[in-house]
Amino acid sequence: MQISPIDFAILVLYLAGITxxxxxxxxxxxxxxxxxxxGRTAPWWALACSIxxxxxxxxxxxxxxxxxxxSDLGFLQLVIGYLIARVxxxxxxxxxxxxxxxxxxxxxLEKRFGARMKSAAAVVxxxxxxLAEGVRIAAIGKVVSVAFGTGDRMSILIIGVLTLFxxxxxxxxxxxxxxxxxxVLYFTGSVAAFFLLLHKIPxxxxxxxxxxxxxxxxxxxxxxxxxxxxxTFWAGIIGGTFxxxxxxGTDQTMVQRLLAARxxxxxxxxxxxxxxxxxxxxxxxxxxxxxxxVYAQHMGTGLPTGDPDRIFPWFIVHEMPHxxxxxxxxxxxxxxxxxxxxSLNSLASSSIIxxxxxxxxxxxxxxxxxxxxxAWGVVLMLLGLIxxxxxxxxxxxxxxxxxxxxxxxxxxGTWNSRASERGALIGFAAGLVVMIAVKFFTPLAWTWYVCAxxxxxFAIGSLASVGSNGRQGPRVMKPASAVM
Length: 484
Fold this sequence. Notes:
By secondary structure, this protein is mainly α. The protein has a single domain, classed as Sodium/glucose cotransporter. The protein has helices spanning 5-23, 32-37, 44-55, 58-70, 76-92, 94-97, 106-112, 115-148, 153-200, 204-212, 233-249, 252-259, 264-299, 311-319, 324-354, 362-383, 391-415, 421-441, 449-464. It starts with a helix and ends in a 20-residue tail after the last helix. Residues 470-484 have low confidence and may be disordered.
């Protein structure tokens, strides 16, 4: 074991404490509304923290510094798109989610197109979310292997079982409030790492800026227009906007948090508030990567080579004081558990609600929901054992392949009053097929995937709907509420 007994004890206490805390939320659960939406009792600020904690993963905490360590701050261009997308979603989709009692994002598609479209979207979500979460769970293995000098199978099993237990017991209310605690923990730990690095680098911040000038590591903007470069201004603004519109507007893991708000106003406040937090958070993670690059110059040898994802975990274990290292490691574990719990609950909710695995009896439906949570827990732990390569890009790429088709069909139902269920299904299938082909047979950067998939799905869905007699929705989009 490479970490100190003090750090190990802190980590164990955290894991035990958060598990017990989450399980306590089982009390008072009577139906699916309680289990999947937390009874719609959470305040908007808690939902904002939960959205950020879900959007952040172990991939983010170890992968984002790794990107800046190996290149520059260009990833921040993508985050600007994240902010733009939130404003658009508050106008276009969030109001529609409060025009009924929805438990999942895909019930909106059922209302517009019919049950077949809802089921098709749900299946794609289930596959995408399971694979993407498998990458996230695999990422924690990298942290544990650095911290304990062991393999990752046991760590994946421990994290998986503990998270499954409190999610199984506490439902969405447990997910939201453990997210809040986990967000505070990992953000505080990251700030502590920033000041420690600042102290260790000769010259402080001036030393950082001078050292980062080598290789232009402080560069943020690249105005080159390229479809093959991942981090340019245009890929960030356009690609980042489409990516977040899809992830926060059509992915059940995120939409479930919006649906758990007390009302439409709180849902919008939570979404916009999370955008402010996420910008500063990504800026912090990227700056940490630059600081690690400068620190490596002064240190010379000893840092791990060949895998930038291991740089930050190495620094935590080897350079942080005892006690603080345990807290930061606990923070990284916290993120992994936050992601897994949110995914488990959303996978279970979509399986029960969208694919008809529930029932009319509230008690029996609640029991089936817990069993479905258990089943998905086993699946995610198995997927976490797969070697996925560079974790942040792998996770985002998997989601980006299918997000375009999902966003395209949602926009088709919102903006094309003549679109039919048959046209939507054809456009949806075409979007998926085209993007799989794009992934394997073209050099298009992953940051453009959602934009391309959305355009293909919307265009083909619109053409396929011409002359169709299939089910149609309202001929005009209902105006968004003026209440923000």
